[in-house]
Amino acid sequence: MDILILLIPVTMLLLTVGGLFFWWTVRSGQYDDLDSPAHKILFDDDKDMIPTSDKDD
Amino acid sequence: MSLEKCFHCGLPNPPKPYTLEVAGKEEYFCCTGCRSAAETIISSGLGDYYRFHQPDQQPVDVDLNAKQQQALKLYDRDDIQSEFVLAVSDELKTATLIIEGVSCSACTWLIEKRLSQLPGIQQAIMNAGTHRLSVGWNPKLLQLSQIFENLFLIGYRAAPFLPDQEEKIRLKTQRQFILRLGVAGIGMMQAMMNAVALYSGDILETHEIWLWWTSLFLTLPVIFISAWPFFTSAYHAIRGRQLSMDVSVSIAIISAFIASVIATITGEGEVFYESVNMFTFFLVLSRFLEFRARTLTGGGNALNGLLPQTCTRLAEGSSCEIPVRDLTEGNLIRLLPGETCPVDGTVEDGASSFDESSLTGEFKGVVKQPGDTIYAGTINQSQPITLKVAKVGSGNTFNLLQQLTERASTEKPRIAELADRGSRQFIWSTLIITLIIGIAWLFIDSDRAFWVVISVLVVTCPCALSLATPTALAQATSRLKADGFVITRGYVLERLAELKEIAFDKTGTLTEGSFAVTAIRLSNPNPDSGFSEQQVRSICSQLERNSEHAVAKAFTGDMASEADMTVKHIEFSAGLGVQGNSEHGTWRLGSSRYTAVPEDEAHSDTTVLFLTLNNRLVASIELQDRFRSTTGPLLNELSGASVTSHVLTGDANRFPAAELQALGLTGQYQAGLSAEEKLEWVKSRPYYPIAVVGDGINDAPVLAGAAVSIAMLNATDLTKSQADVLLLNHNLLTISKALRAARKTKRIIRQNLLWALIYNAIALPVAAMGLVSPWQAAIGMSLSSLLVVGNALRLRRY
């Protein structure tokens, strides 16, 4: 279990990196619009790619 | 959709709707505006829009005329763009526009797709929540006016958006909340993982210490980033000799954290890192949800869109289009029918009638002759006139109203939040009791004193208490928002729950705000020799087809039938009526004076128009502003909820009073009030919590001065900016629904507070006797919080 002495610092390091990335995403405004992206996925222009075109109404 | 409803906007169709072939099927439209919007949408290959869209029940304006196109061209000028456009490089400019007419997420899709089809568009991102479009384009390939034009063609109106101070603060606060939430979430999950290892029991002493230290480091960012604003707010509260919820929250977080740190350093005792993290996370979450539900509405620089930015200046016999801000006192400007007057001025030449509804609430036109004063923000209804500029910018009437509004809003008393009031004594008593228990244990068993105090503090932790109010408020706010009742200030629900009186504006609030034909009396009802009602409507609509006057809108649904009778040579007489010729002779439509028909006194509560053919009366037409269908039920529900309803109107006519009382009006009917008098009336009321519902600019000051102000959907932007609540639909019953929700919210908050008190009353003595170990206290605390959150969720239904 002494592997913990290595694993814990590694975890902390990864967490710090993740936390900094998170801070950057907030700073760059990626969370400013929390509603529209959820709707956007519904309007993808993938109609041509869907094989059963008569199913979608 | 169907024959009854407009395919584009969903409004009921006129008897002979406009048609267009869509995907091989005949579809029907209520007006040419909707039809041409649909045509543009279909021909751009965006017909998918109609598979998803929810019609917004607002007809599209008819096509841009040459004059409006000219005005849009002004947006291409550099000095006008400098206010809201950011030139990133030679080939990229960006701007934020606020879009009117967005009703559903399909609209955002449509706008983005349509714009991205234009050459030179670099980006077009529409925010569905705030109705803002951020657009980037290449000025070498595309002009900004073309973007406006294309939006207009698919049925949306755009205006430049300038974020105001409040908006900037909102964005900053939201980012802060997300950062705090994320940090607390990450910290909570990591500390929980450590806690699983710790509580599993089968762990070496050394490993346990390692995990304690790890949890300590994990908790540091949560304390310093997520929980820090609680501490600063608590600090400010204490400095102001107040005890707020944040004080007890801070005491709980800090004491649990410090106890854990001491345990970690000394290596004995208990740690509560995961409790600290979880508590912080839930608290930040509930505060964030409440903040979001309350602030996510349009806003920004409201006045910019309301006043036209350009006007026609006459100088030395020629005229030119100039931006309004280039005007100086004494300039002569030309105002065409349908244009909004940009400045205060006096009529120099010509006569016309003006719609002053934005100032007085009364939409019947006011006749203006040479020498009369024209106010900024009023709309020219009939003839082109020349006016001399009297006041520019800050001195004009429009700005004075705005100043009045601002003053009233600063005078608005701020009531302390319900939670803070209810829990203040509780916090005091907890602190004092804890202190007494601590001192007592110092004598009984000084070794255990510290841990008993921690247990008492944790067990009586105000988590449940502090979550009791925000969770309930957040739930009620977001539920009401889904119903179209958007709360923009935090105190609204609390005040609504205590509401005793509510005052309504009449025109545009209780009524539909536009004339409708209520009766047509034919002077010769014989169908063979006279004209049918249908023919009369058709003639009237043709006579009024080019008019901007409020009366004209009453006939718009009747066009395009009876093509055999074409009325030509239409002439307006300001404030009097209109005349035109057809093969039958000369038609006149207007007041009794204009048509030389003796007025029938019995109908003076309504507006009566007379239609004559070669000076012989053909029909008299009664026009009335109808009450909304939901006015009666609302007044009844209000009196059922023992709330007194009043009506304050700028309209001097007293006749609607009787009708309103029959509908269920329980309070006063005050007619002919100016904006100042309305404000005075509200201030003179004995019961303080009074709500005011309004729409016109003249309601803005009274809205700012009321305890709770509600603005209608069709309200002017200035009015909306003053409102605590925006009503997003025309259903007045939403107000009574909100009243019920507010009362239920108050009940649930009381229940939550009561539960928290009972829990503490039981847990405190047990903990004081030293029977509860700190980790048991933490579990009790969490369960109690969950119960409170669960109770708040009951507000989903009301």
From TrEMBL, chain A:
Presence of the UniProt keyword Ubl conjugation in the record: no
InterPro entries: Cyt_oxidase_maturation_cbb3
Keyword entries, A-Z: Membrane, Transmembrane, Transmembrane helix
TM segment ranges: 6-26
Listed Pfam families: FixS (PF03597)
Keyword Membrane: yes
Source taxon at top rank: Bacteria
Protein name from the UniProt record: Cbb3-type cytochrome oxidase maturation protein
Annotated organism of origin: Reinekea marinisedimentorum
Lineage, broadest ranks: Bacteria, Pseudomonadati, Pseudomonadota, Gammaproteobacteria, Oceanospirillales
UniProtKB/TrEMBL annotation, chain B:
Compartments it resides in: Cell membrane
Segments traversing the membrane: 177-198, 210-231, 243-265, 271-289, 426-444, 450-473, 753-771, 777-795
Protein name: Cu2+-exporting ATPase
Entry keywords, A to Z: ATP-binding, Cell membrane, Ion transport, Magnesium, Membrane, Metal-binding, Nucleotide-binding, Phosphoprotein, Translocase, Transmembrane, Transmembrane helix, Transport
NCBIfam families according to UniProt: ATPase-IB1_Cu, ATPase-IB2_Cd, ATPase-IB_hvy, ATPase_P-type
Membrane topology: Multi-pass membrane protein
Swiss-Prot/TrEMBL GO biological process terms: copper ion homeostasis
Limits of the HMA domain: 93-159
Native source species: Reinekea marinisedimentorum
Molecular functions (GO terms): ATP binding; ATP hydrolysis activity; copper ion binding; P-type divalent copper transporter activity
One Pfam family here: ATPase-cat_bd
